[in-house]
């Protein structure tokens, strides 16, 4: 099959290498390989510079007139297949930060069943998986944590829309050689200028706003606190007393934040960094804290009834007067906890907790 198109929008950040290699002595059969080079990418934005990388990406592959003979089991921590995909469509999840060995991975064996056989592969991401590694010159250094968190999220949103949409990388293979020009995605300069102007206005508006309330600032930046902060950098923010029931903060970094008396019932806090966070009096009933890092945090007077603490780390976590009824604690690590008597400790151990 012929490679008709190969386009990497941010080659420093993520440069995919996708290949279809004919199977020896098997007419029309091919093996599909994936490889990629990843790093940080730097872009000049307004009067500053931003460096970014990717946390998680998807490889979306569409097959036309191609039979999938086999999807290979992959013994790699940086790529895994998504289940429940259709006959003509497969997805793989990619963790770029774990992509280090720079060797190709064999994903599938395919067979062309017609002259119109073709394959389209795209690497796509969303803003929650844009990791900002360095920002210079966009705002002053003494900006408050709440404003910093809001502005970082807007910059990540800008990068995703301008540099990483509609795809990060794309490749098209066809059984027939084509003389047509590859259909690369061309950026609309006028649209980009509008986005730059909008980002500038948001930065100025947030910086000059006398308010510090997180929800107020988020609304000013056209962000929804319940859904727009997945994977966000929220170090040191003040969310005290806010109603964030059912919010999604999965993969977010909330280290050192003030979450006293916050309502995070039914919230998604999977893989969150909550080390050193003050959650005293917080309402966490039904929250999902799977794999959360709660070391050195305070959950004193908090309600965790029905919460999921599977594989969470609660080393040196304050549990004085904490409600832990019906809490799932399988694989959760407890150590040096204020507020746990021997009876409660044995109860948690019987549920799978580790001491």
Automatic annotation (TrEMBL):
A Pfam family the protein falls into: Pentapeptide
UniProt key word Repeat: yes
Taxonomic classification: Bacteria, Bacillati, Cyanobacteriota, Cyanophyceae, Oscillatoriophycideae
Coiled-coil segments on the chain, per record: none
Record bears the keyword Ribonucleoprotein: no
Keyword tags: Repeat
Listed InterPro entries: 5peptide_repeat
Protein known as: Pentapeptide repeat-containing protein
Gene3D superfamilies (alphabetical): E3 ubiquitin-protein ligase SopA
Domain of life: Bacteria
